[in-house]
Amino acid sequence: MKILSLNLLLLFLSSYAFSNDGYKLWLQYHTIENPSDWQKESFEHFKINGSSSTLDIIGDEIQKASLGFFQKVANQDTNNPKLIISKFSDLDQQKFPLDANKITSLGSEGFFIQDFDAGNQNKATIMVANTDIGLLYGTYHLLQKIQKNEAIPAEGIFQSPKTQHRLLNHWDNLDRTVERGYSGFSIWNWHRLPRHIDQQYIDYARANASIGINGTVLTNVNANSLVLTPEYLEKVKALADTFRPYGIKVYLTARFSSPIEIGGKVTADPLDQEVQDWWKEKAKEVYKYIPDFGGFVVKADSEGQPGPHNYGRTQTDGANMLADAVAPFGGIVMWRAFVYSEKTPDDRHKQAFNEFKPLDGKFRKNVIVQVKNGAIDFQPREPFHPLFGAMPKTPLMMEFQITQEYLGHDTHLAFLAPMYEEVLKEDTYVSGKGSEVAKTIDGSLHSHTLTAMAGVANIGTDRNWTGHHFHQANWFAYGRLAWDPYEKAENIAEDWIRLTFSNDDDFVNPIKEMMLNSREMVVNYMTPLGLHHIMARSHHYGPGPWVTGGSRADWTSTYYHQASEEGIGFDRTATGSNALGQYAMELQKKWGDINSIPEEHLLWFHHVSWDHQLKNGDNLWNNLAKHYQKGVEEARKNVKTWESMNGKIDDERHQHVLSFMKIQAEEAAWWRDACLLYFGQFSKMPLPEGVEPPKHDLEHYINYNPKNVPGI
Ligand code: BDP
User: Fold this and answer.
1) Bridge pairing between strands 157-159 and 111-116
2) Which residues form the Alpha glucuronidase N-terminal domain (predicted)?
3) Cα separation of 365 and 253, whole Å?
């Protein structure tokens, strides 16, 4: 009997060890082999000064971590604590004298952790902050350090976020579909709210807090004014109350025509007094429900959304009206610069710049202009948006897309930190050399105090949140870069792997390399050498270089690649649309010259003949074909690498990722074959050696159209 139960126990333990659905994200708290005395002691004797719901969360987190790390229950020890977590104001400063100025400079979200030795009695690790939320961030930081088996450096850890508002943007609709969402439905169950608070809301807040995200925009930028009605504000309040102890504020998208749709007004003209008053009253109402409501995000005059243009007004007229409404309550307005129209007869690349640059300095103090990383639309690679170097008098925030609308949706592994990093590091030259985009985002370049970053979320009801297990890393990476836009993609990848999977270097190193190369791999098999927007129509999944015609030229592929027998690429130099003229002279010179432009941007800015010789001495067509082939080979290699990791992590996640990687390898070939067949009609050149011939003819690929692709 005893033997049987022991066997059962072993069976249970082994199936537990080999199954992991990924729900716990990077908060696995897996067992630490050979923990140090310090690690164990801190958990056996910790003390939290004060009481609040946030401090309770800290206590719970330490318990969870202790059980996971050491299979031990952690204990509060008020007499002889080895880990003291305290607001500075609650710390016994006689025992632990700290530099008050230094602590003040942590601000409201920073933390300080140091091993402190003031004689035998007072040896302890101290974590201090000015607020409970600072302590929560400190706790997650410390627990992550422990999980990674890292020691606290002698000088301590002194951290505070470099941007003020670090937000997820959910493109979630009230019916729970998610625009460009590939991981199930929206996690906001509006129908059950406000009476049912799902555990997932709490887990969501916890995950975000653990990487420093402090705001969430609950609703789609293609907005529904219904969310501003009392019925929905009740629901929004329930979410805000749930998130508050985790330091997360709630924001909503404001549909510009709301005064008409839910206010009974005849106009939404921003200069109309009644409309202005309506928004002021609406803001007052929202703040009654949610006193710390963050503010509004607005998509106006873009892709059919209403906006100030409907009334012949400017983007400033619209933004400032909303800003005035939320200002008395400390709210902000994030006004999107993603404004373009098929009726404007100019390169789509140029339109936002042309519209916003003249408005520099004309926005209210609580407005920040939200700019996508590139001028077109979240492509696998885009040059940075020229607005980042053009509006010194206006706070600008970065909008990254975490969900992979144009990078293979949920099944294609693409670690996005290198892409984010690439843009943040670019020099705009707006204030001379050294004007990196990151310095605009953290406000340091033009001394702005209102700073922010937004990431379009990739989260849904899938058990592992993000579809592909590795796409959790993109949520994680986004949070880390919003906290510190100067962070290195490499460190982020390594941390994520260690926290999520394993500390085994034989796993960490090859997988880190795979992750760091993955975005470039996707560029190779989708849009090498500066190609862009050649995805299938509407759902953007799979290749569609043949997409042409229809209601809008700027939603077709032929508009962007301009392929003909003469060559390929969009001429954005002075001989073409001159979008290049929107960048600094230094860049105009470098990028304007076909021989000095980095090849990764070549076809973005130049129309290039097929036989043009690139730096490696080979012609454009051969280079293009080889990029496609390389991408396919890398995707196949990843399958092998991942297979060789069998047994190093739990089977469940291993199998899940493996099947996705096989899809990716297959579809990389789909991309290569379709694009090379299509472009080959124009180049009329044979495939170079080493590039596999396509499996089917072009017709086959044109006719292949996957049905019911999610996320539209
Ligand atoms: C594009 C998407 C579209 C979004 C739009 C936006 O295709 O679904 O609504 O961006 O950012 O990438 O407003």
Assistant:
1) antiparallel
2) 25-142
3) 19
- Three-state helix/strand/coil letters over 593-618: CCCCCCHHHHHHHCCECCCCECCCCC
* Helical segments of 571-705, H only: 585-592, 602-605, 620-643, 651-683, 698-703
What's the farthest any 2 CA atoms get from each other in the chain?
Answer: 86
pLDDT of residue 38: 82
**320-343: per-residue pLDDT in tens?**
999 999 999 999 999 999 999 988
Q: Which residues of the chain have pLDDT under 50?
A: 1-4, 10-12, 14-16
Q: Is the CB of 352 under 6 A from ligand 1?
A: no
Beta strand pairing status for 452-456 and 165-169? parallel
Distance between CA atoms of 225 and 246, rounded to whole angstroms? 27
Residue 336 lies in a domain: yes
User: What is residue 33's predicted lDDT score, i.e. its pLDDT?
Assistant: 87
Question: Whose C-alpha lies nearest to ligand 1, atom 12?
Answer: 377
Put residue 637 in one of left, alpha, beta given phi > 0 → left and psi -120 to 50 → alpha: alpha
- Nearest atom in ligand 1 to the alpha carbon of residue 377 is 12
Spatial CB neighbours of 358, under 8 Å, sequence gap ≥ 6: none
Phi, psi of 401 (to 5 degrees): -105, 120
Residue nearest to atom 13 of ligand 1 (CA): 221
Residue 580 lies in a domain: no
Helix (H) or strand (E) holding 332: strand 332-336
Catalytic residue chosen out of the listed positions 44, 77, 115, 303 = 303
Q: Does residue 540 share a domain with residue 477? A: no
Same domain, 431 and 289: yes
Which two tokens mark 59? 């206590």
pLDDT of 430-442, one tens digit each? 999 999 999 999 9
Cβ contacts of 608 within 8 Å, gap of 6 or more: 567, 568, 569, 594, 602, 620
